[in-house]
Amino acid sequence: MKLDLPLFRPRFPWWGADLQTVANFVRPLPKDLAPHTSERLIVDLGDGTGDRLACTLDRPSVPAKGKPLTILVHGLTGSQESSYILSLARCLLDAGERVLRVNLRGAGPSRATCGGQYYAGRSQDLRALLANLPADLKADGVRIVGYSLGAATLLKYLGEEGEAASLLAAAAICAPIDLSATCRRMLERRNFIYHRHLLGMMKIEATATGAQLQESERAAILGSRTIWEYDEVFIAPRHGFAGAEDYYERCKPVRFMAGIRVPTLVLAALDDPWIPGALYSSYQWTGNKALMPLLPLHGGHVGFHGSGSLIPWCDQAVAKFFEVTSA
Length: 327
Known about the structure:
Structural class: alpha/beta
Shape: globular
Low-confidence stretches: none
């Protein structure tokens, strides 16, 4: 399969992996997707917790007939309003396609409708989302794009489902395919500012109004000094893991990727400051024809702000991949 894409070349002033990474934060996109229209969609997870995902369904101003629904899943401490989500949403809407922007359990607007908390291995939430979507939204098929942690969850789901996955295609952008190795990278001194920012946002998100927590859990979250410790004292015990490393080992996407049968674009930059590029370059991609790796040397973490277009290169790649797989 060939996408016929130009090579990724960074655009001024986003030179280097770190500037590519922070561009989404220092240059956020407008949240208004006009002239397209948006409406709230609440999806009950049906797992007995009462948790419901708050999603936003975007409809194009000029709809194209017979186009699939594309579901967008954000990363750690993200939401439906993350810049990379809004960017791809507009790209697809402009092409006449419907988009469902999902807020994972406890993230963004889903904090008010969920007492629980998402984590990288919570693939059952994607399964429930797909099962409980209104039938008319799925009538022309469904595709999913996941970013970072959301991409890890997507790859796990796809591997678990195998040929039973009811998707036309999928795309995983900058997935931490080995959770333990990614956590170790994040704890390196060069990532101190990233780590401090993410951990602070994780604490705010997990303890915000609506979260159902025991006082001991709240204290454990707020007392965590690292992301590893947050996973060790909160995520792992709350979700039945022996500890952070047990969680990482049992949920890492590389354990499941061999089972994927849906055509899946796996896109990552080898200079990603958060995820070791060696995880991708050493993976045996030829063992699974359903996976299409796209591994440029540069791009940072969910950056890909390239020359020649204001549309991120990863958005162009996803759109092209979906075009090719639907042909």
